[in-house]
């Protein structure tokens, strides 16, 4: 094969997709083979070709081993070659910090939009150069029906884009994903078929083990792609844990400068050229502590709250009288009822109670009684919900405190003013 130019110059191992490929159309006698992945019958075609031209018939096992050795010595990475070319031709102008604003009508969000953009694009570049590196962030493009969310991802992903993934567990989908750089869960079809625990686990993977079609055994493959999702639903985050992996960008067709369908190949090249430059400068694939805290607050607008959760949040934001801790359980409950019903609470002497401070400490049983008028013994389901919500609030810390002379488990507000 090495001395036959028809074979040696046109057959390559694609190191990115990990496929054997025909890089230019070839003809083996009367058999025409198109450019693309090596066809299933290639070994049979090659056997006939060798017999006709060399007078030799190789045993299937020997032919298979010979092919493996040949492809091992003849590899190329088209995505890396593209990235290097984009880097070489980059004009030095920064575009990533405004890319979502320009093409999708996103807002700046105090610099968070720019940080999310750079993290995503440099993360993708890193997967090209170091596909074994862990990158567990997901880009979520939210809202803006008609803005061109999918078109944007198709443009930047070029031929290494896919939205054909139906879930994150089916091994057939693994083969599709590993041939792509940009994997788009369009309208979150795959997400809706996957539990949140399974989704978090998949996003955090650095490799994927499965048996590719026609292989004899399963193997581990580096996860060489980044994940994006699109949705028109703004309040789409529904889990109270692990949401740090998901970085939403809220888009708006009324604010976009141009539709992604107008994006040219040259513009795409410039975008990737800048991303490669940042990668080569040692870009950190972890947000700093200040940015992480800002993202926690930022994601709240995308988090779905049911009625129970909304009432708990409202209770935590409720201003109470200065003597709140000295008020009886009945008085606290009556005050809360008045607050939720836009009424004024007065004691038996007609004195009006005015809310002036936030609560420094709340106990689960207080929330149960004051907000939902439920005794602790009867509120097991809501108790679990309260605990899950409170455990994941950055501004609250679980501790014990003394209430009415008894030690109770509850939560202290951090950094109360």
Describe the structure.
This protein has 3 domains: 5-76, no CATH class; 78-302, P-loop containing nucleotide triphosphate hydrolases (Rossmann fold, 3-Layer(aba) Sandwich); 307-413, no CATH class. Helix content is 40%, strand content 17%. The chain has 16 helices and 18 strands. The chain has helices at 5-8, 42-54, 60-73, 78-88, 99-104, 112-129, 149-157, 171-177, 189-192, 196-204, 265-280, 289-299, 307-316, 329-340, 364-372, 380-391; strands at residues 11-14, 19-22, 26-28, 31-33, 36-37, 75-76, 138-142, 161-162, 182-185, 207-210, 219-222, 226-231, 246-250, 319-320, 357-358, 361-363, 396-403, 406-413. The strands form 6 sheets. The chain has a 5-stranded parallel beta sheet. A hairpin with a 4-residue loop joins strand 1 (11-14) and strand 2 (19-22). Helix 6 crosses helix 11, helix 14 (329-340) packs across helix 15 and helix 15 packs across helix 16. The termini are far apart. This is Helicase. Residues 379-406 form a coiled coil. Keywords: ATP-binding, Coiled coil, Helicase, Hydrolase, Nucleotide-binding. Residues 89-303 form the Virulence-associated protein E-like domain.
